Amino acid sequence: MTDRTFVIIKPDAVRRGLVGVVLARYESKGLEIVTLDWRTIDAAMADQHYAEHVAQPWYPALREFITSGPLLAVVLEGPAAIEAVRTMNGATNGVAAAPGSIRGDYSLSNRENLVHASDSPHSAEREIALWFPGLS
């Protein structure tokens, strides 16, 4: 079964020159890039994307980070793409993420953790529609 997932290669990965490394890992796994777009987002877009977190006390720092510079929005497709990407990304906290995962190999942070990925088919559908409204 093939599905689609949404990924953000976050501003810290862009600043550190890791975009190519991250994309290569997804492609090496066998996932196909459906579309991608360089963007710098504003607070309103961050609030839409992270709608379920806006009321959390830690959210303002996340908003400040995700709007701090360019990012790459990506739609990937492949067998079990959602599960595959989340496994490849590793645990949210880079310190706790397994070696071999993107975060485990390149991150020491819980917030500046290089990548975001949809966590379910529902969130993949919502995030893809938000970031790429014309994509069917």
- CATH fold group: Alpha-Beta Plaits
Helix content: 40-55%
Fourth-level CATH superfamily: Nucleoside diphosphate kinase-like domain
Class based on secondary structure composition and strand pairing: alpha+beta
What is the string of SSEs from the N terminus onward?
Answer: EHHEHHEHHEH
Helical stretch tally: 7
CATH architecture name: 2-Layer Sandwich
Total number of distinct structural domains: 1
Profile the largest sheet. Answer: 4 strands, antiparallel
Overall pLDDT score = 97
Overall spatial form: globular
Strand content range: 15-25%
Give the low-pLDDT segments: none
CATH class label: Alpha Beta
CA-atom Rg in angstroms: 14 Å
Euclidean distance between termini CA atoms: 17 Å
Task: For the largest sheet, list the strands in their spatial order.
Answer: 2-3-1-4
